[in-house]
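W.,

You were right to be curious about this one. When I first looked at the sequence I had no strong expectations either way, so I just let the prediction run and decided to look at it fresh. Below is the sequence, 293 residues in total, followed by the output.
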Amino acid sequence: MRIRAGNRIKGMLAGKRRSSSLGGSQEFADYRPYSSGDDIRRIDWNVYGRTGKAFIRQYWDEQELQVSLYIDVSQSMAFGHSDTNKLQYALRLAACIGHITLCGDDRISVRLFRDTIIRELQPLHGCVSSSKLFHFLADAMQQLERDSDSSSPAETKFVNMAAPFQTAAALPRRSGSAWVLTDAMFEQGIEETLISLTAAGQQVVLVHLLSPDELSPDLSGELNLIDSELGTGKEVAIGQKLLQEYRSAVAGYQDELKSICAARGASYIFVNTGVPLEETVRHAFLSSHVLNS
């Protein structure tokens, strides 16, 4: 299983994908005349025997895909029971995507974001680097849990998804594939985020995570609903009619995100965190053609 790449990829290290540059893989591309300083082991002696001239065999450079993971760690991502918690699920999913990437001889980097990029893992390469990725994600989860236990609600709600993507440092420096794992609970900025990443040469995959309780809440009566970002509450009378309107609104928002992604050439994947991780990867990701089996 591998991350799907679109056009030829330019990279730094020898990998398993055909690049637009020439290098040292085993797939023949062309000949060029020998020049002083060239490795004589690359001379095609059969051609030399026929022509009396030295030519160097050139091969397509098999380069690694640059994969950038962006993980939303805002307060709303902490919603869900332990087995369906969106943030924990997103981090496990990131570990899975990262491991697939690294073992495909591609490169992976990770950025955690709220209203800014709060933590970053520099690019890794090679299957042996999976342990570094897992350690980074596990350490991040522990730190986020400690921060959540000790902090009060933010003074300013994170409502604009585009905010952390406004600086050059937040964007990948090389073309590749950018995956954004988020619950997409923003008032604005989702399309602007896709535009920023696409302009940076990225094939964008928006992974939209919601928990079962968000998809079909089991609520009724007079309740005080708390804003997870600000800690403010609102009294709401919940009945079947309101729940049906809510479910329709959620489905409508999913359709809106699909349309935004399609308009910007991005892939949209919806993830229910109540579905086992293996099933999500096997069905949702493969059927969306962002992974190749």
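Here's what jumped out at me. The radius of gyration is 23 Å. And, maybe more interesting for your project: The chain has two domains: 2-63, 66-292.

Coffee later to discuss?

I.
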